[in-house]
Design goal:
The protein is mainly alpha-helical. Helix content is 69%, strand content 7%. The relative contact order is 0.13.
């Protein structure tokens, strides 16, 4: 058995493993899609531009019962999407986000924020307002959009209403 034969065997095993992984991903995705269809908030959250099934599942799984959060600040804080407060005497500074809570949700929220600013005019305008035309503020602005998305998600889960671009636009313009 030469080197070529050993390499060919190894490649064949890797391809078989790859095929098995594709089947496992397909089965897991089908299971998750079926589970999401049974969740009342699944369709609500997926009506937000840029939010897909995996993001909806992650938010719903960690939220459990949205009524346990008194306001959007508590909800965003639960996911670690609020700035740290550094106070000393009369000096008060807001720093990086706290990163408390589930990192997986923060990650998917930030990823879907990139899609949301492409698909939603209101969220794109908010992103540009926070970014102030500076490339160095892109990450700060996308985290701000993520926090807004979480606030919108909480409101939708409480009200039971689908995403409304006009309502979000009014809300973001009032906050400016």
């Amino acid at each position: 058995m030469g080197k070529f034969d050993l390499w060919h065997l190894h490649l064949s095993n890797l391809l078989d493993e790859f095929d098995l992984l594709k089947i496992q991903i397909k089965n897991t995705t089908a299971y998750l899609d079926k589970y999401l269809a049974t969740q009342p908030g699944g369709k609500l959250l997926m009506s937000i531009p840029g939010v897909g099934p995996r993001t909806s599942e992650a938010v719903l799984a960690y939220t459990d019962d949205v009524s346990r959060f008194d306001n959007f600040k508590q909800y965003c804080s639960y996911f670690g999407m609020v700035p740290k407060l550094d106070e000393s005497g009369s000096c008060r500074r807001l720093g990086h986000i706290t990163k408390h809570g589930p990192a997986a949700v923060r990650w998917v929220i930030c990823e879907c924020s990139w899609m949301a600013i492409r698909k939603s005019k209101a969220l794109n305008e908010f992103y540009e307002r926070v970014r102030c035309g500076q490339d160095g503020r892109k990450k700060i602005a996308i985290v701000a959009v993520g926090r807004k998305l979480l606030s919108i998600m909480r409101a939708m889960l409480i009200s039971g209403e689908l995403y409304n671009e006009k309502l979000v636009e009014r809300m973001l313009n009032q906050a400016a």
